[in-house]
């Protein structure tokens, strides 16, 4: 049977030391590796990698808003982590950084964060490769394998009123459905 809880508690490491952290209902995304060993939680301006068996984790980001890629977990900054999705191989995590209009990549082993799609300087629904693509506010993420056995990341572009897809490898971002920035409702093929 599956139980419910209003909080999740873990022992976390951060640049400020080791402490207990309780996540409440304001988590913006959660995903678990296929082997149930690692869990990743998005929490507004931070991402937390948790080793499930030991209930210990590491915080990436100091908790204030910003935009910094890099290898130092205490210096990396996000603006509104809307959702996270662990790549099927379990080696990295896609992060929808909605406030910066980008998709970021966090390596599971090193916690290095890099921008792989979108541009902080462009808030628009634009097809393209990698940082040449544009998002208005990437929100939800989910991985699937297409008919060609390629990994594809589906991305809801919330204020772009669209669902986008990004191939991996290749980082080609295209419109899957929606009007690319125009709200409304219409049935169609």
Per the principal axes of the C-alpha atoms, what is the gross shape? globular
What is the mean pLDDT?
A: 85
**What is the number of strand segments?**
15
Indicate the multimeric state: single chain
Beta-strand content bin: over 45%
Distance between the termini: 40 Å
Order of helices and strands: EEEEEEEEEEEEEEE
Helical percent range? under 10%
Number of H- or I-type helical stretches: 0
In terms of per-residue confidence, which ranges show pLDDT below 50 for 5 or more consecutive residues?
Answer: 1-5
Give a verbal description of the structure:
This protein has strands spanning 8-14, 17-23, 29-32, 38-43, 46-51, 56-60, 81-86, 92-97, 102-107, 113-118, 128-129, 138-145, 151-157, 162-168, 172-178. The protein is mainly β. The chain has a six-stranded mixed sheet, with no helix packed on it. β3 (29-32) and β4 form a beta hairpin. The protein is globular. The termini are far apart. The relative contact order is 0.12. Residues 1-5 have low confidence and may be disordered.
Write the layout of secondary structure elements.
Blueprint: E1 8-14, E2 17-23, E3 29-32, E4 38-43, E5 46-51, E6 56-60, E7 81-86, E8 92-97, E9 102-107, E10 113-118, E11 128-129, E12 138-145, E13 151-157, E14 162-168, E15 172-178
Parallel strand pairs: 1-6
Antiparallel strand pairs: 1-2, 3-4, 4-5, 5-6, 7-8, 8-9, 9-10, 11-15, 12-13, 13-14, 14-15
């Amino acid at each position: 049977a599956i139980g419910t809880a209003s909080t999740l508690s873990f022992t976390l490491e951060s640049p400020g030391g080791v402490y207990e952290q309780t996540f409440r209902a304001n988590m913006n995304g959660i995903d678990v590796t296929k082997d149930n060993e690692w869990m990743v939680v998005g929490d507004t301006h931070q991402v937390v990698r948790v080793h499930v068996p030991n209930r210990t984790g590491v915080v990436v980001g100091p908790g204030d808003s910003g935009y910094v890629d890099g290898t130092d977990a205490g210096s990396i900054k996000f603006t509104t982590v809307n959702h996270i999705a662990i790549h099927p191989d379990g080696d990295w995590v896609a992060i929808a950084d909605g406030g910066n209009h980008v998709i970021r990549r966090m390596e599971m082993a090193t916690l290095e964060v890099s921008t792989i799609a979108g541009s902080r300087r462009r808030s628009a629904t634009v097809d393209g490769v990698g940082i040449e693509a544009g998002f208005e506010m990437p929100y939800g993420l989910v991985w699937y394998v297409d008919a060609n056995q390629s990994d594809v990341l589906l991305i809801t572009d919330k204020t772009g009123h669209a669902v986008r897809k990004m191939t991996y490898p290749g980082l080609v971002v295209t419109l899957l459905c929606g009007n690319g920035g125009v709200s409304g409702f219409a049935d169609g093929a």
